[in-house]
Amino acid sequence: MNDNIKTKSVEKTFAIVEELREREGNGAGVSELTDAVDIPKSTVHRHLSTLNELGYVTLLHVQN
Fold first, then answer.
1. Which residue among 5, 19, 24, 40 sits deepest, i.e. has the most Cβ atoms within 10 Å of its Cβ?
2. In tens digits, what is the pLDDT along the chain, a chain of 64 residues?
């Protein structure tokens, strides 16, 4: 993986983290985050899964 790809990945992760921080603990669904940060849903999901594994976010599975 080259440095540019790594940098873009980190930028995406921080965009997601910053969006969650701005929501002040109110959380957000993957679709909401996708719209807010303009990143594909699969990418947001992958980044959230990693952040969850590292203990930075908690994923809640809510059924409608």
1. 19
2. 677 888 899 999 999 999 999 988 788 889 999 999 999 999 999 999 999 999 999 888 766 5
Nearest-angstrom CA–CA distance, 7 and 13:
10
Q: Which domains does the chain have, with CATH numbers?
A: 3-53 (1.10.10)
Which residues are CB-neighbours of 40 under 8 A, at least 6 positions away? 34
CB count within 10 Å of CB 48 equals: 20
Phi and psi at residue 35, to the nearest 5°: -65, -40
